Amino acid sequence: MVRAATATPRLIAAAAREVARADRLGTVVAAVYQILGAVAALGVVAAGKLVFDALLEPEQAAVGLTPALLALAFMTALTGSINPLQTQQHRLLGERVSQRVWDRVLDTTARADLVTYESTGFATALERVQQNALTRPFMVTASLLGLTGGLLGVATMSAVLIGVEPLLVPILLAAGIPAVLLSRWASRTEFAFAHRLTALFRRRQYLRQLLTQRPYAAELRAFGSTGPLRDRHGTLNSQVTTALRGQVRRRQLIAALTTVGVALALTAALLAIVELVRRGRIGLPEAGAAAIAVRLLSGQLNTMFTSIGGLLESAPFLADLERFVASGPPAAPGGRKRQLTERLVLHDVSFRYPEQERPAVDAVDIEIGAGEVVALVGENGSGKTTLAKIVAGLYDPQSGSRRWDGAVAAAPDVRASVTVIFQDFVRYQLTLRDNIAISDASRQPTDEAVLDVARRAGVLGAVDDLRDGVDTMLGRDLDEGADLSGGQWQRVALARALYRDTALVVLDEPAAALDPRAEHELFADVRALLNGRSALLISHRFSNTRLADRIYVMDAGRVVECGTHDELMARAGHYAELYTLQSAAYR
Ligand code: ADP
């Protein structure tokens, strides 16, 4: 409780800072509305007193009944009209806070290197933060504004009541103690509930994606698996409902207890007023004004405690956000793009994924000379893609060294100097121009530059068919864009690789979606396509890489053979065996 008591003001201050940083002007405007609200409430009490004076003690009244009633009506209307203004201002401010929260989440994810990003801890924390980032900022904003308004209201009404009878204030404030305790309880149950349900939500979200997104539609229908997946989704829904039902009951109980507490305090205060009148300590007009003030004060107290509750409920999520942002690695410095004048050498390089027993890449030595085309072949799972990620600076070797022209190369510099296209490359639902030029933001994506690489990668035939040329939207996920075939998408990815003019290009299965003729042409012409760049070509089809200057054969994370096609065939080892096997299948 002591910890809670000290932690609460700190959390509230942190929430206030977050809101103010999101939108300074908006926060000021919202605060002004809150002050106006408190002043208007004070006006209602004062006008009420005038009305009671005019009714009960007309001879001593400062104003007549009609102007007093008019003043009361005006003040009541003013109070009423501030409310919708506040609601709309909350909407705007809530959106701005939400934007700021998202900016921080996106900054952290954008900064995270691939290793961090792929760790399960990061993924789970990101999921939780993302889910709460949608609703919590609004709650924090509304609660904070409610708290400010509530505090002002409580202060003004308490001042009025102290003038009438100081004892009324502690009676009402006492109602707040159980309310705050109940809020903390609510907060704890809510956080535990969200923690428990994250995994469930993730699985449900994944099923929703499978069942609604276009890339999965054909296969799901071909297998008739929409029904069974719907059933799984239904099971998850039931689990969520059961958990939510329990949580809702807890929250209803807490809300009921809070309301009862406030109502009891209100009754006690009204009884006290009646008692004061009976003993002749206050006159009837004062009693009337006090009754209005008590009613308003209990409303303000309710707002205040609900707001504290809301803040306490959201605070763990804000803390979660802070932890998530802090967990991200510091921003990596931008890398320096280098030319390759001699060679890139990986020496004795190993890499093991977390929670995997054996290394995916195990004591590997490879080198890629300037202008060379080097091939990496091997069966699925032999470690080719992992090695490609080390070459491209996405992973650092866990042991061994990566040297660029003789000097140990830091990952950011390597990333800036290497282009990589993976076999599961991204099909951006953007224009063709964006799809190509996204690989290099340092250049103006002129028609000429974009069309040049599009032509070289063989996309150009498709461009002629596109309605808006290079500005045609691709993909059907967002707009009615042009849908390309798998092979056309692959050529777009190739154009993207060429557009980014780096000394070394890594192409991971660059022909997986091409037809045999196109595949043959791509590999036969690859030197012309690369135009002097060095390349690491990855393929599990051995015939594709015969023309490489050097071929590394991978098996279970190790390089087991190395040489030209002819040398490897002459050795009659692993390569020769697999090559013969594959070409026999073709014959
Ligand atoms: P290839 O490209 O030759 O098919 P990979 O480099 O993709 O091989 O995979 C090598 C090994 O590492 C495989 O056993 C694979 O299961 C494992 N692996 C690949 N990516 C990950 C990952 N992100 N986390 C854990 N294991 C992985």
TrEMBL record:
Query: Under the cellular component aspect of Gene Ontology, which terms does the record hold?
Result: plasma membrane
Q: Does the keyword Calcium apply?
A: no
- Read off the SMART domains from this record: AAA (SM00382)
User: What is the scientific name of the source organism?
Assistant: Prauserella muralis
InterPro entries of this UniProt entry?
AAA+_ATPase, ABC1_TM_dom, ABC1_TM_sf, ABC_transporter-like_ATP-bd, ABC_transporter-like_CS, P-loop_NTPase, Type_1_exporter
A molecular function annotated in GO for this UniProt entry is: ATP binding
Query: Could you confirm whether the keyword Metal-binding appears in this record?
Result: no
- Which is a Pfam family this sequence falls into? ABC_tran
The protein's name in its UniProt record:
ABC transporter ATP-binding protein
Instruction: Read off the PROSITE patterns from this record.
Output: ABC_TM1F, ABC_TRANSPORTER_1, ABC_TRANSPORTER_2
Cellular localization per UniProt: Cell membrane
Q: What is its main location?
A: membrane
What membrane topology is given?
Multi-pass membrane protein
Keyword line? ATP-binding, Membrane, Nucleotide-binding, Transmembrane, Transmembrane helix
